[in-house]
Amino acid sequence: MAAVFLITLYEYSPLFYITVISLCFVVTAAMVLGWFGFDVPVILRSSDETESVVLAPEKRMVQVTNPFALEMGSSAVASVTEGVSLLPCCLEPCVLSCYWGCGVHALQGALQNHQHGPSKLATPHLFQEALHFQYHHCQSFHINGEDREEHYTKMPADMGITDFGLLPRERYPVVAVLSLAESEARDTYNIVASVTVVHVPDDKYSLSARILFQYLLTAQGNMYELKPLFMSAESKGLSEETDSDRSTEAPPETQKREPGKDEKEKMPGMEDEEEDWSEGKGKDCVVCQNAPVNRVLLPCRHACVCDGCVHRFQHCPICRAFVLESFALFQQPHMEEVEEE
Asked: In what helix (H) or strand (E) does residue 110 lie, and over which residues does it extend?
């Protein structure tokens, strides 16, 4: 009966042609969209495709201790003529060197010299030599290991400098360098210096003061850029370190990239926050709303899902970017033991 109906429909009605063509178009469009990575409605997917999700590889991380942290101070006044307040936080006695009007090419050359040159920039004197003294003014502060005070740096008024020219500029307003003061500490820590580029408003460019870039220099000649992790404002711990006005602040767990290996570092003063996260007191997963957030998605750097939900999708639930890799904020040994049993 069905065959007779189809034959009759084929012979006497153009609706058959329209139906077949429409069905072929929908199936072909769904296949093309699926190949190019676009989301396809579940009704157009096969059962095999919905059950088999390509798992994003996990980034291998190595946890290291970072003895440096530098933030903008609480002072509302920040300008080239009035100066700027900086808040360092160090685990060991350090030296804070503030280079006003540091040349852009001079800083890039110094960082390249650290990576490829024979001498590493582990002391303020070596950093000055690597810059070839291409800066207007240098001011140094000695920071004790337990010092949590803000330090105010300012260029001398008699220099008569009120701005650093129009964009694009050839000089950074302030380059703050933290280095270990004691040689014994330099032998203990893998990270020997922290370089922070700070923007300070002036007469030609009134953008508010903020941190532009932060780099960590290691004793082996490697350089890593600190990048923030993005979380909602309601979350604890990590969200306090990721501010929309600061593009390169260091979160408690900071990515440090090199081929085939990533590292996570402990920032000074973050032990309490790490305990909160390890005890499950952090922000709940945005997918299941049950388990605590423990996964950072790459390359978008959104920390928003738990260990169980990270393998359930290929797109970030926040920005819908493709998830290429992910890494865990904190290892959970108790979960591994349960799986082994």
From this structure: helix 104-116
Per-residue pLDDT reduced to its tens digit, 291-326 = 899 899 999 999 999 988 888 888 999 999 999 999
Choose between 87 and 336: higher pLDDT.
Answer: 87
3-state helix, strand, coil in the chain (%, to 5): 25, 30, 45
Return the closest-CA partner of residue 92 out of 69, 58, 115, 113: 69
Of 195, 150, 144, the residue nearest 174 (C-alpha): 195
pLDDT confidence of 280, banded at 50, 70, 90? very low
Q: Please indicate, yes or no, whether the overall pTM of this predicted structure exceeds 0.85.
A: no
Tokens, residue 310: 């990270």
3-state secondary structure (DSSP) of residue 219: coil
Q: What token pair was written down for 210?
A: 């903020």
Are residues 272 and 282 in contact, defined by beta-carbon separation less than 8 angstroms? no
**Would strands 61-65 and 261-266 be described as parallel, antiparallel, or unpaired?**
parallel
